[in-house]
Each structure stands twice: as C-alpha cells, then as structure tokens.
C-alpha cells in the first residue's frame, strides 16, 4: 500500500497562524491546527520582526510535527493588488508572463516596486477595439520572499502561494456550489481587518482590503481544545458597534461602484457570502440585512458537500487552499 504524501496549507494573520495538514487532494483526510501569533511580530500582513517570527514559526513547525512537508500558503490580503489590463492581440497565452515583465513599470504601473505577479487571461474583450483582457495579481516580492525564506529555514518546502479570497471562493464552489449568473460579494470579517471581493462567473472583479481600527489588545484569546482557539472582544462595545455601522456605509459605496462605475448599471451584486473569525458574525449579518435587501449567507466549514463533518469557520480560506491542488 502506497501512502499519500501529506501537504500543509498555511495562513498567517497578525494574531494567528492556521494550518490544514492534508493527505491527498480533498478535505476528507485533514488535520486542523492553529496558534496565536504574539503581538508585534506581524503587522497588517507584513513580518515586522523577522527574527522573532522565525523563532516562533520554527517552534510551531516542530510542535506540530510538520517539518519537511510541502507547503501552500496565502499571501496576506493587505499586500495584494489586482488590476484588469488590456493585452495586445499578437501576445500568445504562453507569452503573457514575458509581456507583463516588459510592461510593468513602463505602460503598467503598480503601487510598489519589484513585484511578484501572476496573470489570468479573461474570456472578455475590450468593447472598443476587441482586444483581450487579463487580470494581473501582484504582491511586493520582498514581502513574499520573507515568508518563503522563513518557511524554508524552518524546514518546509514552499510549492504554491494563493490569494485568500480566491481560496475561500474555491471552497464555496466545491462545498456549496456557485450558481450561474449570480454575482457574489465575499465579505471576510476578522479581528482587525475585513476583505471584500466580488465574484462573477467564477472570476474576481473587485478586491478591497480594509484595516479595522481595532487594537489586538482588545481581543482575548481563549483555548477551545487542542491546537484550537476562539476570541472574545474585551474593548468598548459601543465603539465596536459604531465601527460595524461605518462598514455598512463602505459596503454600500462599493456595491454602487461595482454596479454603476464598473458595469454602467447593467449588473449588480445578488448575494453576500459572509465568513471570517470575527466571533459574532450573526450580528454582522443583522447589520447587513438591516441596510440592504440582499440574501446574506454565513459560510460554514465542512469537509464535503454532504456537510456531515463540521469544521471551524475560521479555517475556510485554509480549506480552500487545501483544494487548490499542485497542478492548479
């Protein structure tokens, strides 16, 4: 009998690291682990103290017994830029990367220098001249290398990286099933940030990272079993309530921008998919439903579409990462 090799899937936040150790390509044989990250090591997705984080991460790898595993990881949303670009007709699909290598910094400008990037050719064409369109995803290479090098130094073998909301959508499509013609706004609400990504026809059309002005000291980490934790808010409840209401205004602004600026009134968001490690997502859903006449679904974690084995909701992006597969 040949045993399937295990792969680990990692996501690092400012306050927690989550891991799904996986045998095979599905979610049926999976082990979930998480650990709080000491404050100050990671700030808005960037490794702020490389030496301290390396020591912490090396100890975590030993503690979890995952050394020498292949690892997939998600790039922090705060580092990701997504742009739609026009591609000349003469550029072949296998020449896309080379084309963007030449044009970045010349005709294509990004919010940072020296990017790592990936590109996805879109089926649509420019309405004016019929040229092809492509989605360009980029992150600062320096920040990406910090994660990769620490993972390698701690004994792991990085094989892939992904974008968090794309991983969450992959999970949603596999377990819930994305319906044709629907436009989904994915809203990930976490302890100190939220992410908004709008998907149509299985492709992202809009992506936004929003820092929440909530100090991490206002959250209390509570053990919830072996290698598992929950979070309790220990700050001013009135302040938190006002902050959530402010996000409703921003959500409306983004949906109007999508409808009228991107699609000239011809397309609109048809449903909101809500997830994240914010401990009271039901309260967030109530706020959304009070402000918008849209169906809101709280996305839950499961190992399969049959929804027999429940998994923590906070692991949803990690579960989607585990479904990526090495050939994707």
What does this structure look like?
The protein has 7 helices and 19 strands. The mean pLDDT is 92. It is globular and about 60 Å long. It is α+β, with helices and mostly antiparallel strands and 328 residues long. Helix 1 (50-64) packs across helix 3 (141-153). A hairpin with a 6-residue loop joins strand 8 (115-125) and strand 9. Helix content is 28%, strand content 34%.
What is the strand and helix layout of this fold?
Elements: E1 6-12, E2 16-23, E3 30-36, E4 42-43, E5 46-47, H1 50-64, E6 70-75, E7 81-87, H2 96-103, E8 115-125, E9 132-140, H3 141-153, E10 157-163, H4 164-175, E11 183-189, E12 193-200, E13 203-211, E14 219-223, E15 229-233, H5 237-262, E16 271-275, H6 281-291, E17 296-298, E18 301-302, E19 310-311, H7 316-322
Helix pairs in contact: 1-3, 4-7
Question: What tags apply to this protein structure?
Answer:
328 residues; alpha+beta; globular; 34% strand
Major sheet: size, sense and barrel closure?
Answer: 5 strands, mixed
What is the C-alpha radius of gyration, as a whole number of Å?
A: 20 Å
Distance between the termini: 27 Å
Class computed from helices, strands and strand pairing: alpha+beta
Number of strands: 19
**Count of helix runs:** 7
SSE pattern, N- to C-terminal: EEEEEHEEHEEHEHEEEEEHEHEEEH
User: Could you name the ranges where pLDDT drops below 50 across 5 or more consecutive residues?
Assistant: none
Strand content: 25-35%
Strand order of the largest sheet: 3-2-1-6-10
Shape: globular
Helical amount: 25-40%
Mean pLDDT: 92
């Amino acid at each position: 009998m040949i045993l399937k090799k295990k792969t680990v899937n990692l996501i690092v936040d400012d306050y927690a690291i989550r891991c799904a150790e996986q045998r095979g390509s599905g979610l049926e044989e999976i082990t979930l682990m998480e650990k709080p990250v000491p404050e100050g090591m990671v700030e808005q997705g960037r490794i702020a103290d490389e030496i301290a984080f390396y020591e912490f991460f090396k100890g975590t790898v030993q503690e979890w017994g995952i050394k020498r595993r292949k690892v997939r990881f998600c790039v922090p949303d705060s580092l990701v830029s997504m742009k739609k670009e026009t591609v000349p007709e003469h550029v072949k699909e296998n020449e896309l990367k080379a084309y963007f290598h030449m044009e970045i910094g010349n005709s294509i400008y990004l919010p940072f220098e020296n990017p790592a990037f990936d590109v996805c050719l879109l089926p649509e064409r420019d309405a004016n001249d019929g040229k092809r369109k492509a989605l360009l995803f980029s992150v600062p290479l320096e920040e990406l290398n910090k994660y990769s090098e620490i993972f390698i130094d701690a004994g792991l073998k990085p094989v892939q990286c992904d974008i968090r909301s794309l991983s969450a959508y992959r999970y949603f499509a596999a377990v819930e099933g994305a319906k044709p013609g629907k436009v989904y706004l994915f809203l990930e609400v976490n302890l100190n940030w939220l992410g908004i990504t709008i998907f149509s026809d299985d492709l992202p059309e809009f992506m936004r990272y929003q820092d929440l002005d909530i100090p991490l000291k206002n959250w209390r980490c509570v053990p919830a079993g072996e290698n598992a934790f929950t979070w309790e808010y220990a700050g001013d409840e009135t302040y938190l309530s006002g902050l959530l209401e402010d996000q409703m205004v921003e959500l409306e602004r983004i949906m109007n921008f999508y409808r009228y600026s991107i699609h000239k009134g011809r397309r609109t968001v048809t449903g909101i998919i809500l997830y994240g490690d914010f401990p009271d997502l039901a309260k967030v859903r109530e706020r959304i439903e009070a402000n918008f006449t849209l169906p809101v679904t709280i996305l839950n974690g499961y190992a399969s579409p049959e929804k027999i084995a429940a998994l923590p909701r906070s692991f949803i992006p990690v579960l989607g990462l585990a479904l990526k597969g090495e050939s994707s």
